[in-house]
Design a protein that fits this description.
- The protein has about 300 residues and is of the alpha/beta class.
- The chain has a single domain, classed as TIM Barrel (Alpha-Beta Barrel).
- Helices cover about 40% and strands about 10% of the residues.
- Helix 7 links the parallel strand 5 and strand 6.
- Helix 2 crosses helix 4 and helix 5 packs across helix 6.
- The chain is elongated, with a radius of gyration of 25 Å.
- The termini are far apart.
- The structure holds 5,10-methenyl-6,7,8-trihydrofolic acid, 3-methyl-2-oxobutanoic acid and magnesium ion.
- 5,10-methenyl-6,7,8-trihydrofolic acid binds next to helix 3 and helix 9.
- Catalyzes the reversible reaction in which hydroxymethyl group from 5,10-methylenetetrahydrofolate is transferred onto alpha-ketoisovalerate to form ketopantoate.
- This is 3-methyl-2-oxobutanoate hydroxymethyltransferase.
- One of its GO terms (cellular component) is mitochondrion.
Length: about 300
């Protein structure tokens, strides 16, 4: 059966969702059911992402660099850092299919380097597939990884790892030439065996068009509603990220407000002495035991 499970209603326990596999993705794609993907970076965000029965894919994105580690861009993130976080994500993930970004510099040197590092992500990072940025130029890498048995999601359109050579984060595919290049890249990556292609920051017309031209699902971020699925950075959608908000981000919650006000209330309660409460938030000792302790302290000469 290909019917999507319904969201649990508040009075019912959540229905455990069957593990999402590449077959599940194909079924969703064939049924034109929009695929839901979200990033996660550690155990609690993986639990959060897994808490909805409707989450299909979890991405350990290299956005980890900015969102969790405070780097100015994704470019200085190391493979070891991705692996460390991916392992934590694996411990918190239930049904969703998992993907990790191959970070900048971990796959461009040679096909051999890419295979070595993708294998590390699978074995040590415990992810089920990898994603890598790039067009036709990375097709030989995609082909080899797929041959080895590592499913690959490609990533075209805006490629944040190229933000320096592109002079910033800019919408891609806005001209005839760049739109044509995007379609050609997408077809080449599909031929190389990618199971899906992520399309970032392109005009909605092009997002829908590339989706129509492919026989594998597209996952869009800033590519309009015409892609096979959508992805957002978890902190962007939860409103817990205070950095730049791209046009494509919708806030589905405002966690930063709730979180910061909680921190401030705590600090205030410490400052004014109202935390901790001596009754409900403290431990007690039997009073006779306490008296015997004080007597022993007097005998030691530590108390007069
Ligand atoms: N928190 C977060 N969310 C993301 O989506 C994200 C990251 N971090 N880090 C890695 C990359 C970087 N990404 C970005 C970063 C900036 C824009 C951006 O500023 N876009 C402009 C487009 C301007 C134009 O060309 O018209 C915008 O205003 O939306 C888009 C994607 C997506 N990724
Ligand atoms: C924004 C998504 C697509 C990503 O690649 C990331 O989180 O690194
Ligand atoms: Mg990324």
């Amino acid at each position: 059966m290909s019917v999507r499970p319904q969201p649990p209603n508040a009075n019912q326990p959540p229905i455990p969702r069957k593990k999402v596999t590449l077959n599940t993705l194909n079924t969703l794609y064939k049924n034109k059911t929009p695929i839901s993907m979200v990033t996660a970076y550690d155990y609690p965000t993986a639990l959060a992402a897994s808490s909805s029965i409707l989450t299909d894919l979890i991405l350990v994105g290299d956005s980890l660099a900015q969102v969790c580690l405070g780097y100015p861009s994704t470019n200085e993130l190391t493979l070891d850092e991705v692996i460390h976080h991916a392992r934590a994500v694996a411990r918190g993930t239930t049904h969703p299919f998992t993907i990790a970004d191959m970070p900048f510099g971990s796959y461009h040197i040679s096909v051999e380097q890419a295979v070595t590092n993708a294998i590390r992500l699978v074995k040590e990072g415990r992810v089920e597939s990898v994603k890598l940025e790039g067009g036709a130029e990375v097709a030989p890498i995609v082909r080899k990884l797929v041959e080895v048995g590592i499913p690959v999601m490609s990533h075209i359109g805006l490629q944040p790892q190229k933000h320096i050579s592109l002079s910033g984060y800019k919408v891609q595919g806005k001209t005839v030439e760049s739109a044509r290049k995007l379609i050609e890249d997408a077809l080449t990556l599909q031929d190389a065996g990618a199971y899906s292609t992520l399309v970032e920051a392109v005009p909605k017309e092009l997002g829908a068009y590339v989706t129509e031209k492919l026989r594998i699902p597209t996952i869009g971020i800033g590519a309009g509603p015409g892609t096979s699925g959508q992805v957002l950075v978890i902190d962007d959608l939860l409103g817990s990220w205070s950095g730049h908000k791209a046009k494509f981000v919708r806030r589905f919650a405002n966690l930063k407000e709730v979180r910061d006000s909680g921190i401030h209330s705590y600090a205030e309660a410490v400052r004014d002495g109202s935390f901790p409460n001596p009754e409900s938030e403290s431990y007690t000792m039997d009073s006779e035991e306490w008296e015997r302790f004080l007597a022993s302290e007097r005998r030691e000469g530590r108390l007069s």
